[in-house]
Structures are given as structure tokens and as C-alpha cells.
Amino acid sequence: MIIILFGAPGVGKGTIAVRLSVEMGMVHVSTGDILREELAKKTDVGEKVREFLDSGLLVPDDIVLDLLKKKMGRDRGRGFVFDGFPRTVDQAKELDGLAAECGQEISHVFNIVVPEDIVVKRLCSRRICPKCGAIYNTEFKPPKKDMVCDVCGSGLVHRSDDRDEVIRVRLHEYGKKTRAVLEYYEKRKLVSQLSGVDGEELFRRISPLVGK
Ligand code: AP5
Ligand code: MG
Predict the structure, then answer these.
(1) Which DSSP symbol is given to 15?
(2) How far apart are CA 82 and CA 77, in angstroms?
(3) H or E element that contains 128
(4) End-to-end alpha-carbon separation of the chain, Å?
(5) pTM here?
(6) 127 near 145, Cβ under 8 Å?
(7) What percent of the chain has pLDDT over 90?
(8) Do residues 196 and 113 touch, judged by C-beta distance below 8 A?
(9) Closest residue by CA, ligand 1 atom 12
(10) Could you tell me the distance, in angstroms and rounded to a whole number, from the CA of residue 72 to the centre of ligand 2?
(11) Is residue 127 one of the residues assigned to a domain?
């Protein structure tokens, strides 16, 4: 089974993906997390993608697909929860082939919708753990101890692309290149529209749809 969590930056894809993948025993695949890991490890790929991540532009398809193929190869035989992928129609077409190779089928595309003013507010107050990837929010989900990860005890950081001007670019990229992916899946009747304003309600609505 492949579940795709779709939506603009800040709608809560990562937050719900962690919960869903644990509950379902599936592999969480966030292409954003994979790219940030390359950056942190200062690999050649990391250096190539730095300017895209810092400016809020989409990373070229070939780089993302290469990393994704490696990840799917390592976790072959398991179901996947995709978060932030696919983001272009070409990525979506490639995923069809990769899914078939893994003997998996795309079963759900959840389009999570949140008003833009709320999204901007959430992103400005987000903090993440650079070590284990846990997601916090100084306003809506603060850690128990200020700026310290509840899960692994590392210091939390502010994502470099969670600045007002970069958030605007990310939202623009979403509108220009990513939203079209929805039509690709709508034709196959895979899309469910869900409000992401209330996280608990979102999880309650997704659970029965994925057989939980
Ligand atoms: P990526 O890391 O995927 O970022 P994004 O899509 O911009 O999405 P976010 O991670 O910002 O938001 P989210 O929906 O996961 O929200 P979250 O759960 O954290 O991509 C980053 C960059 O990598 C891109 O700009 C691009 O350069 C590159 N990239 C990645 N994938 C790519 C691809 N496939 N192709 C090309 N380039 C790619 O929640 C946000 C905040 O809100 C958190 O603080 C959270 O605690 C809080 N929150 C969540 N839910 C709620 C709620 N219900 N109520 C209150 N607060 C909430
Ligand atoms: Mg995310």
C-alpha cells in the first residue's frame, strides 16, 4: 500500500505522516527530510541542493528521484507513507513505475487543506529536531523543555526555509508546479480532500479510510 499525503507547505503532512506510519507499520518517506539529511552530511548531492532548499524552489526531478529510488530499494516489501512527494507530474509518472517494481499500489492520496494565513503562522513558529526529525511548534506543540527534543534530547532548530520570504516562494512553487499533480490522481479517483486545521480530526478521518 502507498499513501500519499499531499498539500501546501505547513498543512501538517509531516506531523500526520509520523503518526500514520507508526500506527500502520509503514515506512515514512519525506523527500524534504532526505534532502536535508544530505545537506547536513555535506554530501555532493547536499551541496547541489543547498541553493534550492534555502531559496524555497523545488529541487530538480532527477536528483529527487535518484534519492527516492535508493530509499524505496532499502525498504522493499513494505508499505510507504509519502510526505512531500510527488511534487511534479513527472515525479508522479515515475512513481507509478517504481510502485509497480516494488509490487505496491497507490491506494490513497489525501489532499490536506489549511488556509494560507494559518500555514504561514505555523511555519514561522515551527521547530524541528535535526537528529531524529521530530516536529514541534512553539505555539501549538511546544516541547516539554524549551528548545530540547522530547524524543532524543537534542537541541531544536528553526528550519532555514521557515522565513517569511522563503515561505512565500514555497507557496508559489506549490501553486505553479505541484497543485497540478492532484489532477493526475483525481482522474484515477484516488483523491480525498481533508481539512488539516484540526490535527486530531484529520487523523480520525484518515484512519478508517486506510483500514485502521
Ligand atoms: P518539505 O520538507 O517537504 O517541506 P514542505 O512541503 O514545504 O512542507 P513542510 O515540511 O513545511 O510542512 P508539513 O506539511 O510537513 O507540515 P508539518 O507537519 O511540519 O520540503 C522542503 C524543500 O525540499 C522544498 O521547498 C524543496 O526545495 C525540497 N523538496 C522536498 N521534496 C521535494 C520534491 N519531491 N521535489 C522537489 N523538491 C523537493 O507542520 C508544520 C507546523 O505546523 C509544525 O510546527 C507543526 O507542529 C504544526 N502543526 C501541524 N499540524 C497542526 C495542527 N493541526 N494544528 C496546529 N499546528 C499544527
Ligand atoms: Mg514536512
Answers:
(1) H
(2) 15
(3) strand 126-128
(4) 13
(5) 0.97
(6) no
(7) 93
(8) yes
(9) 10
(10) 18
(11) no
What is the residue with the minimal CA distance to atom 29 of ligand 1? 32
pLDDT at 76 over 90: no
Ligand 1 pocket check for 28: Cβ under 6 Å: no
pLDDT in tens, 3-13: 999 999 999 99
Provide the 10 A C-beta neighbour count for residue 37: 16
Using alpha carbons only, how large is the chain's radius of gyration in Å? Answer: 16
Residues 126 and 122: their CA atoms lie apart, in Å, by: 6
Give me the domain span that covers residue 59: 2-115+176-209
Q: Are 109 and 6 in contact (CB under 8 A)?
A: yes
| Given the residues 159, 177, 179, 205, the one annotated as active site | 159
What does the block give as the cell for 82? 509519502
| CATH assignment of the domain containing 69 | 3.40.50.300
Cβ 93 vs Cβ 113: under 8 Å: no
